[in-house]
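ARCHIVE CARD
Drawer: 12
Card no.: 0347
Subject: one protein chain, sequence and derived structure
Cross-reference: see card 0346
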Amino acid sequence: MKTKLQKNIFILTLPIFIELAFFILMGSVDTIMISAYEKTFSYALGSVAAVGNASTVINLFGVLLNVVSTGIAVVVSQYLGAQKEDEAKKTIYTGIFIQFFIGLGIAALLLFLGNTLFILIGTPKEIVGLSYDYLFYTAISLLFVSITNAISASLRSYGHAKEVTKTVIVANVFNVIFNYILIYGYGFFPEMGVAGAALSTMLMRFFTMMVSFVLLKRIIGLNIFKVSYNGDYARKIFKVGLPSALESMTYNTMQFVILSFVNKLGTEMITARTYVNTMLSYIYLFSGAFASGNAIITGYYIGEEDIEGAYKNTLKTVLYTLSIVGSVVLLVNLFATPIAKFFTDDPLIIKTIRQVLWFAILLEVGRALNLVVIQALRATGDTTFPLVMAVFSMLGVGITCAYLFSQTLGLGLLGVYLGISVDELFRGFTMLTRWLKKTWVNKSLVRG
């Protein structure tokens, strides 16, 4: 079978968008339902802040799950573009093999170091226990996410993102049901609160992994029990995936440090940050979907040695993404108050959310440029420069500006997001300049 990708960014992006939307929804459903739980029972106070702290700690290491999946997407796309399908399949087998051990290692690390990390970022003592409750089941579920990500990246590279999307939708529906049962307690199930939300997510991630095994066999013809390791394919995967993961880990290190600034502002600001991040995650998914779709198309172009096709398609995708993201940010601001009131009745938290959202356009424009152009650069095989810029900008510019604006200038949570925006804009325009100069040409992983 010779696989030929239909290079239409909207056709490829739509199922990825839906998949990302429902993946994000699974996390935000936890926040929404825990928020309602906290408002219902006075003894549950601090539950939302606990989820926010736990999520930051989990994300610090969870990005390593993308080491292999990002590499698979690029290498498989280039092989398919070059009409080397046997090599593409061997890459998938190697990727799944590696991903299993990465997921297992991260889960174990979080379970053993969770409480230490909470103390390190200054998590208020009253929510440390709740934070670990949420982390416990979520950490275990990362093993399932790890394997699923590798398979999903493979299916997307073959142009079969919609099958993954259907699975994620079903999992989200059941996640809501199990959340209700396990958070509040129903029938024979005890009331578990924060831990119940995490347990529900774990069960649904296991379900998604099992369905992914079936899709891998039916669509690509690969058997999960025949996975094997090949050093040559592993090196190509890591050449793309490792810099990408280190870049993401640098971002989460920045968020980890910045959370220590937020924790000094008190539980209300921790809660406000959790709500803001939940809202911004739905703006992010537009950039994320276009970036993922464009990366697959770029990989095919590079495999076909069509440099101009890759160049022009990425620039068009940047324009589409910026237009859509700008419109969505405006729409969110128009309905910011009712959205905020959906989460909370606290007037200070609502006011803070509205303040931050007014400046979200700066953050999201920078993020859109970063996601689309950086993933395009990786798809060409240009992986080192984005990593170097990430370390310099996030740890140098982002953290410094966030501290300066929030602490020195006293802008509080707004200052934190302004600092992050400066980092995103600086990196975004730097990456766009690199793309325009075409310094990424001749970095293909499967030719030469």
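Annotation on reverse: The chain is about 85% helix and 0% strand. The mean pLDDT is 87.
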